Amino acid sequence: MMAAETADPAQAADPRKIFKREMLACLPSLRAFGVSLTGSSDRADDLVQDAIMKAWAKQESFELGTNMKAWLFTILRNEFYSQARKRGREVQDSDGLFTERLAVHPGQYGSLDLQDFRKALDELPDDQREAIILIGASGFSYEEAAEICGCAIGTIKSRVNRARNRLQERLQISGEEDYGPDSLSAPATQQLFHG
């Protein structure tokens, strides 16, 4: 007899256990979204914890079988903006994030490109950054992203399009050849690997 058949059907259908299992499955994506919003893994962990606590307290308002990931992302997003409003315009560098950006120079082209991308992403307006992260990095559909942000699908599509255009402009990307080493460094790199 298989293990699934020996399990107690009452336990398998327990809504609290199903809720907990689905919520735990979303944690890695939720944390990644938190890091993209806060720019700090420590702050993201705190934000995710706050969002999970709120979700747990409101689990009776979640309908099993619907999109748990979108529901949790909405809670996390709302918590992030709520905390941002409370902090106002205060700039704090207690974790050294801003100082680190000024002092650290990556040793590889990929690191440089990623650093440039992160800076360009941070310069986007909040609504555009949020939309492109939800669609491009978190894998949500336009419909799901619109639901999370509480706006129309067309608005999300417009935000993503404007974000992509701004990123391309800011990073001076016009085609595939603009990725990786610059035109002066590329021949030297090619010679190292193929020479």
Automatic annotation (TrEMBL):
Organism, as annotated: Pannonibacter anstelovis
Highest taxon of source: Bacteria
Domain RNA polymerase sigma-70 region: 26-89
The protein's name in its UniProt record: RNA polymerase sigma factor
Biased segments, Polar residues type: 186-195
Disordered: annotated span: 174-195
Gene3D superfamilies linked: 1.10.1740.10, Winged helix-like DNA-binding domain superfamily/Winged helix DNA-binding domain
Pfam families tied to this protein: Sigma70_r2, Sigma70_r4_2
UniProt family annotation: Belongs to the sigma-70 factor family. ECF subfamily.
Keyword terms, alphabetized: DNA-binding, Sigma factor, Transcription, Transcription regulation
Residue ranges occupied by any RNA polymerase sigma factor 70 region 4 type domain in the UniProt entry: 115-167
Annotated coiled-coil segments of the chain: none
